[in-house]
Specification:
Layout lengths: L4 E4 L9 H16 L3 E6 L9 H13 L9 E2 L4 H13 L3 E4 L3 H13 L25 E4 L6 E6 L3 E6 L7 E3 L7 H11 L4 E5 L3 H13 L6 E5 L2 E2 L15 H6 L4 H10 L12 H7 L10 E2 L2 H14 L2 H15 L8 H11 L6 H12 L7 H4 L4 H14 L7 H14 L4 H13 L7 H8 L1 H12 L1
Parallel strand pairs: 1-2, 2-3, 9-10, 11-12
Antiparallel strand pairs: 4-5, 5-8, 6-7
Length: 465
């Protein structure tokens, strides 16, 4: 058998959808497991909606999650002439015909089907008609002459044997009346020319597969193997669409989901291997197979994604975590100055505590990242005269400490609680607000140690001056 070749074929008409990312991932992992070639085909024949910026975003999104295609991307619009040539060959060898039905006639057929509550199937009026009877004022479309009798069986690598009555497959259009090819023709010609051996895609393409196989047979081409993956649904069980929140990769990277965590989540969304949950990239490639793909739709669960991300945040090497934070902040928040690296890295053990996203870590670390304290107005109002007295006393005691540690700071705080007849909140809250601008955030001792003695003294002095 020839070397495995797969493809992912998005249309650059919008941002890459999460379902598309999973399809690309399954293709890529299967190909790497089989030591084959993974191609990216940009299906840009919808000239009005296709945009270069979407193509760039698709490639960038795939790269972000760790998927890189082999060789140059294949641009479908460059191959239109090849598609038209095959349409004409099908016409010549009797596997296609010219259809002169007007738009009004087709609409009337559709209307009748709706009235009978039946799916619309073109009535094949011109299938065996004589071209001499053709109206002169109508430009014909070219339709493929589909089988009418019997059944067709698709040996699907995920779904098993799928059988269909041939009469339910209409004589589909392969060339529009403006001379442009349709999806089913273009995709089939491209897959043949690219020597694609396995077509792995969503199971909403099953009917297209039956149509495309007929084109393969009519052209006496080798038919690739097909695998149809169940679709991703929302948590409520509806089909996930581009209009849903968190439907594109950008939606996830914006809130600080890490690529490795999302890739691991998507791998497990409809695929399993034993009871294993966490996969490194090399383990994903080693264990991935089509047999592990389930037959039922999967539900996209945001809480599960956050849980997976939290696992990665806790278990990833802290140098790698810091690198992820820096990249995330540079794109979505603010650039982290290089002189903050040591302070942030040494504080990661508490900054990542309970953090589910990189955004959570950024919010926890803002007091280190920013030189200026940005006060939350309502919180700042909580610093009254008693609070200022506590801040002043803490500041004086701090100057006598040689080394900042919890052991050295705890007695000072306990003494302030006692002498001011208050509790830990009464001491900790004003100090936290003075140092970070907010009454919420990391623990007081962690904040003081992270900032260092000099910076703490500077920030407290601004409150009591």
């Amino acid at each position: 058998m020839s070397k495995v070749a797969t493809r992912f074929a998005p249309s650059p008409t919008g941002a890459l959808h999460i379902g598309g990312v999973r399809t690309a991932l399954f293709n890529w992992l299967f190909t790497k497991n089989q030591k084959g070639t993974f191609h990216l085909r940009i299906e840009d024949t919808d000239k009005e909606r296709s945009k270069d910026e979407h193509k760039v975003q698709i490639i960038k999104s795939l790269k972000w999650i760790g998927i890189e295609h082999d060789g140059e991307e294949y641009i479908q619009s460059n191959k239109i002439e090849d598609h038209i040539k095959i349409a004409n060959e099908l016409l010549k060898n009797g596997n296609a015909y010219k259809c002169y039905c007007s738009a009004e006639e087709i609409e009337e057929q559709k209307k009748r089907a709706r009235q009978k509550k039946m799916p619309y199937i073109y009535n094949r009026k011109w299938r065996d008609a004589d071209d001499n009877d053709a109206p002169k004022d109508i430009k014909p479309v070219i339709r493929f002459k589909s089988k009418i009798e019997g059944t067709s069986v698709l040996n699907d690598l995920v779904q098993g044997n799928v059988e269909i009555e041939n009469e339910t497959i209409e004589d589909f259009i392969i060339l529009r009346n403006d001379g442009t090819p349709t999806y089913n023709l273009s995709a089939t010609v491209d897959d043949h020319q690219m020597k694609i051996t396995h077509i792995i895609r969503g199971d909403d393409h099953k009917i297209n597969t039956f149509k495309q196989i007929q084109i393969y047979k009519a052209m006496s081409w080798e038919i690739p193997k097909f695998a149809h993956i169940p679709l991703i649904h929302t948590i409520e069980g509806k089909k996930l669409s581009k209009r849903d929140n968190a439907s594109t990769l950008d939606d996830y990277s914006k809130i600080g989901i890490m690529p490795d965590a999302l890739r691991n989540y998507l791998l497990r969304l409809g695929w399993s291997y034993q009871d294993k949950e966490i996969f490194t990239l090399s383990e994903s490639i080693k264990h991935f197979n089509l047999e592990g793909i389930g037959k039922s739709p999967s539900k996209l669960d945001m809480s599960r994604i956050l849980s997976m991300n939290e696992h990665y945040i806790k278990s990833i090497d802290e140098n790698d975590l810091y690198k992820n934070i820096v990249e995330y902040c540079e794109i979505y928040k603010e650039k982290i100055k290089s002189d903050k690296e040591t302070k942030i890295k040494s504080s990661l053990s508490f900054l990542k505590n309970k953090a589910k996203t990189l955004e959570d870590i950024y919010n926890n670390a803002k007091f280190i990242i920013n030189d200026k304290v940005n006060f939350i107005e309502d919180d700042f109002k909580l610093i009254d005269n008693k609070s200022k007295k506590i801040i002043l006393e803490f500041s004086k005691k701090l100057s006598s400490i040689e080394k900042l540690s919890k052991e050295n700071l705890e007695p000072i705080v306990n003494n302030l609680i006692k002498t001011n007849e208050t509790n830990f909140k009464g001491v900790g809250q004003p100090l936290r607000i003075a140092l970070t601008g907010s009454k919420f955030g990391p623990g007081l001792y962690d904040i003081v140690i992270a900032l260092g003695k000099e910076e703490v003294a500077k920030r407290l002095a601004k409150i009591i001056s």
